[in-house]
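Tutorial sheet, problem 5. The two components below are modelled jointly, 229 residues in total.
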Amino acid sequence: DVVMTQSPLSLPVTLGQPASISCRSSQSLVHSDGNTYLNWFHQRPGQSPRRLIYKVFTRDSGVPDRFSGSGSGTDFTLKISWVEAEDVGVYYCMQGTHWPWTFGQGTKVEIK
Amino acid sequence: EVQLLESGGGLVQPGGSLRLSCVASGFTFSSYAMSWARQAPGKGLEWASLISGTTTNTYYPDSVKGRFTISRDNSKNTLYLQMNSLRAEDTAVYYCATDPRFGGSYFGPGTLVTVSS
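Model answer (structure tokens):
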């Protein structure tokens, strides 16, 4: 199975400041169809996961543009240009290129 | 508005069986691959199964292969997960979800399955 490794696992942030989460895969996420199926999800306590970004950098409808995704191959990054209070929770990267699809361990974002 | 609503969770003894259902609305159900994801208490997320839209090809991770069966009834807009030979490590919230690789990713609120004697 493809192993997804996130860092850091805990990220205390100051409101209004930027934040960045790294995600590395154990093998290339470029699919034979040419797409790279790397997603980012956000989960608040007691809630279902919500997808923020798919195919590396495409934001979902309603996701603020302070969220951006980048990367290629095996190295990917989620950036929050400035953190707001509603951004707390756990962020997961997830690959959909190789079955079984796999998630990273999660990065817990909290306000300092 | 897309809605997914799971049901069928509960307490079951090790070795027992349970069948989860997920009723979908707000989109053309038969056109989309569907999946089940799960999350053990306080842990991360894991995909438990996947089924294609019309060809009904199915996929499972090794952790559930041979024990779980995913199926769908497109006439009822309903997804199912038959879980047999349940183990303590299958204890989790089970989410019904659309295919997350493309536009419009949705999860249901989840249903809790507890495997314990």
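Marking note: The interface with chain A takes residues 37, 44-47, 50, 59-62, 95, 100-103, 105, 107-110 of chain B (CB under 8 Å). Full credit if you identified this.
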